Amino acid sequence: MRVPPPEAEHDPSRRRHRCRLAAVAGAEGQPAVAKKATADDVLKEWKPKVAGKGKAFEATGGSPKEAPDVGALSFRLEGWTFEEVWNFYADKCGVEHRYKEKTIHIVTGAGKKGSYVISDRLTSLNADATRAVSVFLLKADGYTATVSFHPSPDGKSILGSIAVVLK
Fold it and tell me: Looking at the structure, do residues 32 and 43 belong to the same domain, yes or no?
């Protein structure tokens, strides 16, 4: 659960900072206390939500205790189409573009969630080339996140990585 700072309730310019705070349960009978979000908190938000039969998400990585403002993980998704993953990260970045099988995106822009970059790479310059890797980057108010992903060599899963740096 996210808890905004009290001043964000009244100051519209601060509402975008809500992702910077996380709730921490207080002692029994005590109210929850807001704390500054860590890179692990942001990484959790950037993990695809597992929904549906046959879908799985496995990941390794995280944020070091000595540097809670940075974090990274590598992941493997099973049961997802490339289109589902591509559109999930487009939504995370606030991008209106949608996945199209024969379309490669090299896009920059800014929206409600921040400034973004999308970069798709082809396997070759031949007519039968396919998408090799897709990269999404979002520079939000409280953090910068980047994710890259590609189909596994056997085509049965999607492999990728996420990196986060808090401001």
Answer: no
